[in-house]
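Key idea: predict the complex, not the pieces.
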Amino acid sequence: MRIALYQMEVVPGRPDLAMEKVASWLRGLEGIDIAVLPEMWNTSYELERLGELADEKGRREIDFLKGLAQEKGIHIVGGSMAVSEEEKHFNRSVIVNKQGEVAYQYDKIHLVPMLDEPRYLSAGEQFKTFELAGEKMGVIICYDLRFPELTRRLALEGAEIIYVVAEWPEERMDHFTALLKARAIENQCYIAACNAAGECNGTVFGGQSMIIEPTGQVLAAASQKEETIIADIDIERSTAIRQAIPVFESRRPELY
Ligand SMILES: NC(=O)CCC(=O)C(=O)O
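Result:
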């Protein structure tokens, strides 16, 4: 299974231009099974303007992703997008399969205080695994990465790949890279982390997207600039590693 991550330079406050960029990126992909976008790719952190920028239930972006998924015959982990719903705003991840159907939607559970999200956004209340290409997977959004309970539960539910879609600022990149590796090692699953590049309202995003295998070894890594990274995922790897280091069998959940 070949995965491509688009470490996109954001186009703050211009969903129309962001969609043009994403369309041209997706149309240029060849031989890819799953394409991944970063967090808030449609608006970036123009939170004060979400009333005018975010579409109701994200229909505009979802229809756009559905069309491209079918046109290219590719599954799309649609990063996350600012969407409106019943006069609230959410940071929502949408997964579209290659048949052009929405396979899963997830609203960010942990809103990040450092970027003022709790002031402008409503938090999600639930999460679970989803299936693409017959495999179980999970997705979390940026600040969620600091809460290992999410990835552990997704792994316990059978997720073989966990996507981390992000707009992680450059000043905390050491946290980003350390936490990504920890989540891969402790859960013995693939982590595919797609960060953004560029800048919004003075916050510079740190890039360094990566695809990490269940041992913690980095299969592909990006610089800080706009870039695409690609890696082949072999789901059997996690089974072999879970047999060699049987963390899940050694757990003592009754004690913690
Ligand atoms: N977009 C985010 O959630 C940023 C998270 C962040 O800056 C951090 O956890 O540090």
